[in-house]
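Handout, section B. The chain below has 85 residues.
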Amino acid sequence: MDNLGTHTIYINLLNEGSPCCRPTQGIWVSEMTYRVLPTENYDPDDEHWEFPPGSVVECRQERRIIDGESIQITIAVRAIQPRAE
């Protein structure tokens, strides 16, 4: 986590053909809860995030294979507060 209270979190991508996720930043709200921030090149017409930017999500630690390496990540698992329209 950096000085601004952000942390790298992962968001599952939908409609990709195989399971995958996107790293992005989340603003810390409380223990394992973050507000999702968009990536610099976020395009909702190109990638369909399970929880779009602006959502407040509950996360958990999970081990995933990313780029052929098994790593521990913080992944969003449930919307606490959907994105404000």
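Note. The mean pLDDT is 90. Compare this with the example in section A.
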